[in-house]
Design a protein that fits this description.
With 215 residues, this protein is mostly beta strands. It contains no helices and 18 strands. The protein has 2 domains: 104 residues, no CATH class; 100 residues, Sandwich (Jelly Rolls). A 4-stranded antiparallel sheet has the order 1-8-7-6, with no helix packed on it. A 4-stranded antiparallel sheet has the order 2-3-4-5, with no helix packed on it. It starts with a strand and ends in a 6-residue tail after the last strand.
Length: 215
């Protein structure tokens, strides 16, 4: 994101909670931005809904000194109005460093559930990620009943050479060397912290139904 000009803007009151939630529409990407302030940690947030996909696709994060007041689309560009380190500025979205949003640097990531055959336990074996460039790492959390606890595998390295065009993780095991078994697996993939764009097109998971499955 590039900062274009310094603006002089003083909101009548701080953005906060439901009555002060604001929206921004991007007609090119067909995305609706929902901007507000968290009642949990008082930090500002922005969720993005993609109309074409009919899904929430992004959650932008802000530091305590960074605020997104709103935005507008004009001249084929999405313009944002926000505060960075005390100064209010106008920014153009989708320009500059892809890991920087109004002075807040984050490691880009996606989180999704691997949940085939949702009602039956399965063993998660392998995963392949089709991406244009190397990624950073991936976490796995297998959700099980409370008495058993979750299985967690953290920071599996994805900064490796690709195998026939994709990045592969073989035979998933937890720190106790046990196979990952459960109903569903929450997966978080992180991009490189340096400014290297990588497009993920597909994610494949190999799994086996438990031998105790009744069918």
């Amino acid at each position: 994101m590039d900062r274009d000009v310094k603006a002089y803007y003083q909101p009548t009151k701080a953005i906060g909670y439901e009555k002060d939630i604001r929206g921004v529409w991007d007609p090119i990407r067909k995305e609706y931005w929902l901007v507000g302030k968290s009642s949990v940690n008082s930090l500002y947030f922005c969720y993005i809904y993609n109309v074409s996909l009919q899904q929430w696709v992004s959650n932008y994060e802000f530091g305590s000194a960074n605020i997104l007041y709103g935005g507008a689309f004009t001249n084929q560009k999405l313009w944002l109005l926000g505060k960075e380190s005390g100064d209010v500025n106008v920014y153009t979205m989708y320009t500059g460093e892809c890991t920087n949003l109004m002075g807040t640097y984050v490691t880009p990531r996606i989180t999704f559930l691997v949940n085939p055959d949702a009602d039956f336990a399965k063993t998660f074996d392998d995963m392949a990620i089709a991406a244009t460039e190397r990624l950073q790492d991936v976490d796995f959390v297998v959700e099980r009943e409370q008495s058993m606890g979750q299985q967690l595998v953290s920071e599996v390295n994805l900064d490796v050479f690709p195998v026939e065009g994709n990045y592969r993780i073989k035979t998933l095991r937890d720190p106790r060397d046990e196979r990952l078994r459960g109903l569903r697996m929450k997966t978080t993939i992180r991009w490189m912290s340096i400014d290297i764009p990588s497009m993920v097109s597909s994610i494949y998971t190999k799994y086996r139904l438990s031998a105790r499955t009744p069918f």
